[in-house]
Design goal:
homodimer; 249 residues; alpha+beta; five-stranded antiparallel beta sheet; 10 helices; 12 strands; 22% strand; elongated; DNA-binding
Chain lengths: 249, 249
DNA sequence: GCATCGAATTGATCGAGATCAAGGCCGCGC
DNA sequence: GCGCGGCCTTGATCTCGATCAATTCGATGC
């Protein structure tokens, strides 16, 4: 169900990367026909192979971007959070969406129709440059994903993922996992079992995981594990049983 | 060494996807300051982390796009052939290149400066839409790579790669590998040894490989191997020794 | 011609991660 | 309360692909 954007929605949308550097009035003009969509868990926002008529901005919640293969199972391509935009590029081509977007939890999404935006671009080309900048960011992220899948071990990808959740520069930090471990596993190209064992190995490096709560003793060390050559890491990490401080009661 | 574009260069460049749908005079205007660069094997076209001041079009030869990790080794991200463009998106952002481009063989590349192109866009915004369409294609390709790395086995990726080399709709076909097997292995996220064994397994499915010459008995069957669930394929393919018809003399 | 070097294949072995199976925990509905 | 189902973990086993090593082949240089 679509509805008009609230003031709060505008707060989020106008601050988003896609519109970075644009004048406030330009943004106002762009999002004039935009609507907000409220979604329950597992509801779809866009569907792979449907004609691309709009792009989207996450206002609140988490969105899973995935591709379904002919054989039925799905491959997670990316996870989008509040303030992220997706499907910008394809919306301008008139082609079809190349992936499906699904709400993970209760989610609010802004929908920006492409046809109107194309007209805006013809009026002020700077919009296009802002869009390209945003798309370039997405490409960078995809390139990094390819690199990680080809060059890192599973444990290293998990380390990288955890490190990316923290804003801390150095030292100790606490954080919480943003969604199900099953989803995290899918995002990292692992099975849930392997993710579990990767966490166990990282315990030896000072990473404690209790349900969704994570504490990292030394974030620099974690980043070093992620950055090292995959063979350097080999053997240095062994699975560790739960220590006393980590037991649930 | 840069030089002016020849008539032959223009033939290639004006037909490229980036400029699809643009008027001939518009394209002429865009590529006015463009130059052509001739490269020997292993020479670099752009370097990861250098400021992005231009984007490129391959006029002839093969270009390897890769990222170097801190630990020194490189990860192949993509291979570009005649008519492909790369680094469009980042060239507009003023950021730095996120990967390195290296000539695989003797290669000719067109270099299109970004600053001039940005001025062109301000004059006629349709250029931006054409660029976004091209960038969207690149994203599609990256998304597919992520999907393949996460969901396919090595043999399936090899099958997919071979199938993508053929234009044939069905039946028998012959083709030649476009570059070194070491490079193919890197592109598919395999070691050369594993690629070799994957080829051996595909022999059982009617794929014969002799140096760079490949013959496929049934291209549909090959595509089916690539598309199937990775568990369905399991066990159905075993390594096969060279048969009489496949021996070099 | 011969030596050399790198590409490619093949064999033997190892290890990371998948799979299969079982069990605990928690939230949910009845 | 109780039962059920999904998430998560752990154990046992298997498989794929990596690694290490040896060899062949072909291209290149002297």
């Amino acid at each position: 169900m679509s509805s008009k954007l609230t003031a709060g929605d505008l707060q989020v949308i106008t601050r988003v990367a896609v519109f970075r550097g644009l004048k406030s009035e330009t943004v106002q003009h762009i999002i004039e026909p935009a609507t907000a969509v409220m979604l329950r868990p597992h509801e779809l926002i866009m569907r792979q192979d449907d004609p691309a008529t709009a792009f989207f901005i996450v206002i609140d919640g988490w969105v899973k971007i995935y591709r379904s293969t002919v054989s039925g199972d799905e491959t997670v391509i990316d996870m989008m959070k509040k303030g992220d935009s997706f499907a910008e590029a394809v919306a301008f081509t008139g082609n079809r969406y190349i992936a499906t977007a699904e709400a993970v939890n209760t989610t609010r999404v802004g929908r920006i129709p492409a046809d109107h935006l194309i007209r805006c671009i013809r009026g002020s080309p700077d919009i296009a440059l802002a869009m390209i900048a945003s798309i370039s960011q997405h490409m960078h992220h995809l390139v990094q994903q390819v690199e990680h899948l080809k060059a890192q071990s599973g444990v290293q990808r998990v380390a990288e993922f955890l490190a990316s959740l923290s804003l801390a520069e150095q030292g100790h930090c606490a954080l919480s996992l943003p969604y199900d471990k099953i989803l995290i596993a899918g995002q990292l190209g692992l099975t849930p079992e392997s993710l579990s064992r990767a966490f166990a190995k990282l315990r030896g490096a000072g990473v404690m995981i209790n349900a969704s709560q994570v504490t990292v003793k030394d974030i620099v060390k974690l980043r070093r594990i992620a950055a090292e050559d995959r063979n350097t890491v080999r053997g240095t990490l062994r699975p560790m049983p739960l220590s006393a401080g980590n037991v649930r009661h």
